[in-house]
Amino acid sequence: MVGKSTVLAVLAAAASVNAENYIGFNYGATKANFGAVKVYADFKEEFEIARKLAGTNGKFNSARLYTNIQGPSKDDPISAFQAAIDTKTTLLLGIWCSAGQDIVTNEINALVKAIDKFGTKFTDLVVGLSVGSEDLYRNSVMGIENKSGIGAQPAEIAKYIQQTRKALSGTPLKSVPIGHVDTWTAWVNGTNQAVIDAVDWVGSDAYPYFQSTMANSIKDAPKLFWDAYNVTAQATGKEVWITETGWPVQGKDMNLAKANREDAQTYWNEIGCALFGNYKTWWYMLRDADPNAPETEFGVVDANLKPYYDLTCKNAKPVPSPVANSTPSSSSAASSGKPSSTSGPNSPGKDGKDASSRPNPGSSISSLSTSAPPSTPTADSSNRSKPSGTSKSNYSPSASGPSNTASTYVVESTPASGTGAAAKPAQTTGAPGGVSNSAVSSGVAMGLVAINAIVAAFFLL
Length: 461
Ligand SMILES: *[C@@H]1O[C@H](CO)[C@@H](O)[C@H](O)[C@H]1NC(C)=O
Ligand SMILES: *[C@@H]1O[C@H](CO)[C@@H](O)[C@H](O)[C@H]1NC(C)=O
Ligand SMILES: *[C@@H]1O[C@H](CO)[C@@H](O)[C@H](O)[C@H]1NC(C)=O
Ligand SMILES: *[C@H]1O[C@H](CO)[C@@H](O)[C@H](O)[C@H]1NC(C)=O
Hints:
Layout: H1 4-18, E1 23-27, H2 40-51, E2 62-65, H3 80-87, E3 90-95, H4 101-118, H5 120-123, E4 126-133, H6 135-138, H7 141-145, H8 154-168, E5 178-182, H9 184-187, H10 193-198, E6 201-206, H11 221-236, E7 239-245, H12 261-275, E8 281-283, H13 352-357, H14 359-375, H15 381-384, H16 387-395, H17 400-412, H18 439-460
Parallel strand pairs: 1-2, 1-8, 2-3, 3-4, 4-5, 5-6, 6-7
Helix pairs in contact: 1-18, 2-3, 4-8, 14-16, 14-17, 16-17
């Protein structure tokens, strides 16, 4: 047995961690499926939909964005900021970094403008800032082979991080936790160490569905997800934020992975319900059919905003991390990010080969996320609108498809609005633990925490 004190201790630990575990979705700067650039009303509607999702008690109140810039302007703050203020949605901000210094400068200027304009109404909602999104994946051997688009070198990302810290130093966001979002394959690549050294946290984008070179049926998904998490935490020694994950309700078979509602429900129940409230999590994604469903559709609601499956976690059997207290740890020493350090059967990427074998996390995802963003940014303002949605479509299943698209975008794109892909919203609140807004939600939350904690306790004993 599990001693009562053990369980209580685990619960206490989980509860304290939960206070900061935001829950939300990724929100692109443009409508899905090659839609137009989103404006205030679009963001406000989406943030409200997220909060009203049936059975979730308003917990999905945080949004991850990919850009600070409102398309098609040069450096006006994205209208998502005003929408977040009006809906009390917390924000994980994003700076698009694969379109060069000028765009990064515009991104920083847009953020500074927003701070001046909105003050603490805005800055109090900001829970983090990611400088870049999958730029290192796109810059990798796999990313290049898969034509995922233009990426950035680690030294560039590190430079942009320093510029961002400097620009924010005299502002209310001077202490905002700054990270970078990428795939596990990038985090275990020792050549990217400069980025690891420069950040406060690392973002993990993980999509077992796309890991087509590995056994990736829905039954294998929890192992693939947690392997990616684990190697990222081990290689970086930094707190890992779950910046993108999800399972599509429709799309092609990717090796053993099938895209359908049943498997998307299972992924939500086993992975989502293990994450919500226990890790900072921005799901991919809220709405993908906007207005038309892309070939590979990740949304949790349909075009009429109705959930595709049960989002309550009530009947879920979450599969927690096999690493006992895997809460994001910053503890472990930062081992070098070298690939070699990872070993073990599962481990992904110890060498280039492995890495490539696991295209998914990175690649696939990246394609997605990646693609989206880039598109947005496109230099051409007109083109910028395409963004996000696109990305997914791009991605489409296999390599070739998506990538091409993505690359196309990328090339054209500049930074601008970037953003595309999807960002998520959510605030922590609801989640199980923590900060739930309402008593009800906290009840749900605590229930989840308890389940997770007990499961964790069993693993420990
Ligand atoms: C490792 O990272 C470097 C720098 O981002 C990149 O050039 C290289 O291609 C990556 N290695 C692999 C195997 O992808
Ligand atoms: C490209 O991505 C696909 C999956 O989308 C993967 O099977 C393939 O291995 C990747 N190619 C390379 C070279 O990594
Ligand atoms: C986590 O990763 C480390 C290093 O790669 C490995 O030694 C350990 O066995 C992994 N743990 C799990 C539970 O997979
Ligand atoms: C970018 O978009 C269109 C369509 O691709 C293209 O014809 C044009 O040359 C570029 N600009 C824009 C808007 O797309």
